[in-house]
Write a structure and sequence with these properties.
About 50% of the residues lie in helices and about 20% in strands. The protein is of the alpha+beta class. The longest helix is centred in the middle third of the chain and has 21 residues, at about 120-140.
């Protein structure tokens, strides 16, 4: 089983990468939380890997942090949640916020994640609450203070808009984070305006 992969990032598209390691290109599926912090293509990258083996497939899921991988493994332990849905859940909300929602049993917050229905949210909260609390304690996670994750949709849409305008992901992500932190009232239009001002 592959647990860790380091190499050159040959290609990245939303949710899917190709990493060159020793002349072999590994395709890796990643959540948005990892995608947003990736280096540029042709630069070195390292990821924690979960290897999913099926009868007809050998699929690699990659994560920038151990926390993301731990949450992913917790999610797929829940009945009815496969690896792809687990990645979608991680992509729908930041790992810290997701861990907090699970540990507090916030079914409403979980249900707001795209692809998660009421019954799935209830199963996640019921089955993973204790595990999520343990993970938080083990990692000594600080209380979440970054405003950007409070409205992931605005963050994602603003970042996408800046990338489409030609800005690289790293500076665009930082600008959006700072823009949301600077604003009293968060709206997509205002976040983009403020982010553009910061980038200039």
């Amino acid at each position: 089983m592959i647990a860790y992969l380091k190499g050159i990032l040959l290609k990245k598209t939303t949710g899917r990468l190709i990493i060159d390691n020793g002349g072999i290109g590994y395709e890796v599926i990643v959540p948005l939380s990892t995608f947003y912090v990736l280096p540029e293509e042709e630069e070195q990258v390292s990821l924690h890997i979960y290897t999913h083996v099926k009868e007809d497939a050998f699929i690699l899921f990659g994560f920038k942090t151990v926390l993301e991988k731990d949450i992913f493994r917790m999610l797929i332990s829940v009945s009815g949640i496969g690896p792809k849905l687990a990645v979608n859940i991680l992509s729908g909300v930041g790992p810290d916020v997701l861990l907090e929602a699970i540990s507090t049993g916030d079914v409403g917050r979980l249900q707001a994640i795209p692809g998660v229905g009421k019954k799935t949210a209830e199963r996640i909260a019921l089955e993973l609450k204790d595990k999520a609390q343990e993970v938080g304690i083990d990692l000594d996670l600080p209380k979440l203070t970054i405003t950007v994750v409070q409205d992931r949709t605005v963050f994602d849409d603003a970042l996408s808009a800046l990338v489409n305008l030609g800005y690289s992901v790293k500076p665009a992500k930082k600008a959006v984070e700072n823009a949301i932190s600077n604003l009293d009232e968060v709206s997509l239009e205002e976040v983009i305006k403020e982010a553009l001002r910061l980038l200039v």
